[in-house]
Amino acid sequence: MNEVRAISIFARAAALGNLRKAAVDTGISPQAASHAVMQLEKSLGVRLFHRTTRKLSLTEEGEQLLQGVGPALTMLSAALDDARRSKEEVAGPLRVSAPAALGRTVLWPSILEFAALYPEVQLDVRFDDHFTDLISDRADVGFRGGSPPSEGAIARRLLPIQLVVCASPAYLERYGVPKTIDELDAHRCTGYRRANTGKQAPWEFLIGSEIVYREVAASLRANDIDAETDAVVAGLAIGQLGSFSAVSHVRAGRLVPLLTQHMTERESIYIYYRHRTEQPLRVRTFIDFMVARLADNSDFFLKASELRTAPGAKRAR
């Protein structure tokens, strides 16, 4: 016996004074309603109604039960209404997980725009460069740079990640332009220390059809991508930066892309989430909003024409 359902039918029958009306009100047959109430009475070992051919009236035990379950049924009904409204209204809590490396430059402006458009959504955004998943983060939507998330989530590619070797005009004027990968050994370079391992990430280059990794001696390293970018813009060293960090500086003339014929583009930025049919409207709306703002947005990667005109772009190694 489904006790919650039986108690709900009992309460409606008590309110309407008629079991048939209670059956119509709850969308079941009169026989099913009658059976549910009789099963409830049998389970409790008491009669809940005085029955006549015309009406029902509560016994003393029925009155006590109705008074006891009334507040709980009211709370249950309100909770169910809230759940239904979450499918219809862009409102309620929304938890987002993303790497800090993507936060300030790529995601945050669009997230703030979404928050302004939908003030009834309570955003809870967690930026963390350690690899996580929706379950461990208790998140509704996640973002990731690199490879797509593992099984258990739907992943949609938003943007390519180009790894761009670049330097400031002031650095190049002082130290010269490296024309080959090997010439980087004679230059000051930055390094990025990965959050998961604490190790410095190797630089990677496309040589022919293969991706080759090189350990670069760093004169300055950081575990924060924005800090590394600031160091390169300041003219302290050459860096290999993600396109989402470098592109605005390149277009403003603060950075110059180098060795672009060896630039790799093997990874991407993804948005990931559970099945859309399981999501309330606020989550689906956020996903659609972020996809519309970011998918293939050239504000975050260099176009082919920009790469062709970079210093030494057509030179062989």
E-strand count: 13
In the CATH hierarchy, what is the class of the largest domain?
Alpha Beta
Counting H and I runs of at least 4 residues, what is the number of helices?
11
Binned strand content: 15-25%
Q: What overall geometry do the principal axes of the alpha carbons give?
A: rod-shaped
SSE blueprint and pairings:
Blueprint lengths: L2 H14 L2 H8 L3 H15 L4 E3 L4 E3 L1 H27 L5 E7 L1 H18 L3 E7 L6 H4 L3 E6 L7 E14 L1 H7 L14 E3 L10 E5 L2 E5 L5 E3 L2 H9 L5 E4 H9 L4 E3 L5 E10 L7 H14 L9 H5 L9
Notes on the protein architecture:
By secondary structure, the chain is α/β, with parallel strands linked by helices. It has two domains: 3-86, Arc Repressor Mutant, subunit A (Orthogonal Bundle), CATH 1.10.10.10; 97-317, D-Maltodextrin-Binding Protein, domain 2, CATH 3.40.190. 41% of the residues lie in helices and 23% in strands. It contains eleven helices and 13 strands. Strands 3, 4, 5, 6, 11, 12 and 13 form a seven-stranded mixed beta sheet that branches. It has a two-stranded antiparallel sheet with strand order 1-2. A two-stranded parallel ribbon has the order 7-10. β3 (92-98), α5 and β4 form a beta-alpha-beta unit. It is rod-shaped and about 100 Å long. The mean pLDDT is 87.
